Structure formats: C-alpha cells, structure tokens
Amino acid sequence: MTVSTISIDSAFFRQAFSELAQIGRDPSGRGYQRLAWSEAEREAHRWFRDRAGQLGLEVFTDAAGNSFAELASPESGPALAIGSHLDTVPFGGAYDGGYGVVGALAAAEAIQRSGLKLSRPLRVCAFTDEEGPRFGTGLLGSKALAGALDMDLVRRAQDREGTPLKDAMARFGLDLEDLPSAARVRPTFLGYLELHIEQGPRLEQSHIRTAAVTAITGIRQVSLHFVGKTNHAGTTPKPDRRNALRAAAETIARFSPWVDAQEELVANPGQITVHPNAANVVPGEVRLDWDVRSPDPNRLQAAVEYLITVAEDVSRPFHISVDSQIFHDVPPCPMHPDWIELVASAAERLNLSCDRLVSWAGHDAGVLGRVMPAAMIFIPSRAGVSHAPEEYSTDEAMLDGVRLLAQTAADLLTREAES
Ligand SMILES: [Zn+2]
Fold first, then answer.
1. Cα distance between residue 70 and residue 56, in whole Å
2. What is the pTM of this model?
3. How far is the CA of 316 from the centre of ligand 1 (A)?
C-alpha cells in the first residue's frame, strides 16, 4: 500500500477553516448564525463549492441544497463519501459540522496530492439543515439523499415567523416538491465517513485523541399533554384541585431518578407550556416535552412506554387526563462493524489513541448509515461544550482527526481496489 505517502497540508486546513469561520459569525461575538436556508448558510455552501473547485474537484448540488465535490478516479463506480454539514444552531460554534466539511476537503486534497491510485471516486459532502432549529426539519439534507424524508411533515414546516420551508427554499431557487429527487444520487454512494467534534467531555477527560463511533443514538421526542381544570388558586378546595402543572412536575420527579439508574439511556424534560400560566390560577393545561435517547432500540421503546405510564399514574389522583404524542423519532443507527475496525486500525498505524464511543448527538451518518455503510470519527471537544460560542477543539486535535479521516478513506479506496 502506498498509504504512507498521505500527508495533510496543515496550512491548507487552517486557512480553509478560518475562511469558513468568517461566514455567519454573529456581529456581537455570540457565535454563529448559519441557520439552514439563511443567506449565511447558502454563502457557506458557495464558499465550499468555490474552494473545492479550486482544488480541481468536480462540484455539483442536489435538489435538497446539499453540495458535493468529487475527486475522480480511473475506475467508475459508487463514490466513497466524506463530509459533514455547514449549518449551525442559533448562536452555535465554529466546529460543529464545519470542522468535518473542512477536514474532508483537506483529506481530499491530501489524497489527491498523494498520487494514490483510486479505485473509486472520493466525494466530499456538505449537507444542509442537519440541525433543524428553524423549521424543525433536522437532518433534512441527508434524509433527502437517503430517501427518508417525510414529505407531509416537510410541506407543513414553517419557522416562527410563519415562513413556510417551501418559500425559504424557493428564495434560493429550490423547489420543495423536488426534494425526493435528491435520493437519485444515493446508488452512487459506496458509504459515508464523517469527521466531527465529540460535543461531549469523554475524550478530553480520558486523554484519548480520537474515537470510532460505534452507534448513533436513537432519539424520541415525546409531548405529554396534561388536562385538569383551570380554577381560582385560593378558593378552590384542596380535594377539587386538578392542577395539571403538579402532575407534570410529579412526572419529572418520578421518571428522572429511574432514568438515572439505567444504562445507555438519557431523558430530558426540556420544554413546558403552562396554561394559563399565572400564579393565582390553578393551571388546567400543561404540555411537557421530553427528549429520550438510547443507542438500543428496545431500551428506547421501553423508556418511552414507562414515561407514559408514569405520567398516567401520577395524574390519576389529581383527576388529570394525559395524552402523549411522539413528534420526533429517529431510530438508533449502529455504525458499520467493518468500518469501525478500519478507523481503529488506521488510528493504530498513525499512533493515535482511539476509543469507541456511542454518539449521544444525532448526525447525518445516523441517517445515511441506514441505507449504506457508515462510520464516524470523533475528536475531543474542550470541556465538552458544543452548540455554543465556546465550542473549541485545538488545531492539533483537529489535524489528528483529519489525518485519521484521510488514512481511513485511503484504506477504504485501496481495499476496494484489491477486492
Ligand atoms: Zn454536527
């Protein structure tokens, strides 16, 4: 194998990373505003295509607004895809998504320069709307590619100002009804490798430099709707109080310690809407939204069922009724066992310590991994902070990850040549 000739151009990586970091930076210094379908996010995609074009890669886009850049090979066939996303959450950091895209560009540059004979094209991907806070349509770009979009949901999607997703896409010349056609490109994918910051503290705390992700967590978001009786906070006799907020609070108090005692399970009561929301009124109606996560589908299912049982049990004495609705459901996605091993073995040859970790955050690899082989590489996040302006990884850690990505990609392309 000629893989030892692959060396990352660290100046190229740093330069490209700092160029992207100029786009969508909040003027008040509070992080990044590259929300999907904003001018800034589209500008980041244009930047990506320009940068890739300068490397001589063949650039194209799809109906979902994803951008691609391909390094051709003498042999045709499905491409090995590497990349991440270019959108951020509101007031997000520079590293989530952007690092993986720039790292993939730097890996492609290094592989191109290495002279390695590619048996397959290498395709750098920049996905759109991975985060989804504006329209509630997270993972939109990769779902469109995977053919996994719920078109009814997408057609109904609108932001807080009431702008439909359809109009936001139309501003950039894209037709929402064309989204399913993005799946046409899928058969041309060999598989997908994504480089990403960990977004948690485990690697930093263990002083391990990289990780191969074993599985991407499943996520189920559940809305509990408690209905009691709105009444006067002072005059209502105690036995007659049907306080929906109290039932919601007891649900949190009873379910949370149970979750704490479980392995491979987290659950977060994250949003509550109280009606009518006044101190002197017994609240008759509460909506309580939970985010429940596990890499194990059975645990996830059991936890959501138990949450609903707890809510019903604690509500009964207060004569409160409970409805539940799952409003976001992403099944867990194991990474491809062979590809996990390839990442680990490449790390070993590069003398990089490599852990194996579950990803508790969702990623495009979790969508694509359901329709093609996929793997992910993590690098340490300082203090485990992400989705915040303080998000940070050192240059050294970032270059470790890019080297590992390039090596794993080269191994995959070489292995395909041999098979
Ligand atoms: Zn991300």
1. 9
2. 0.92
3. 41
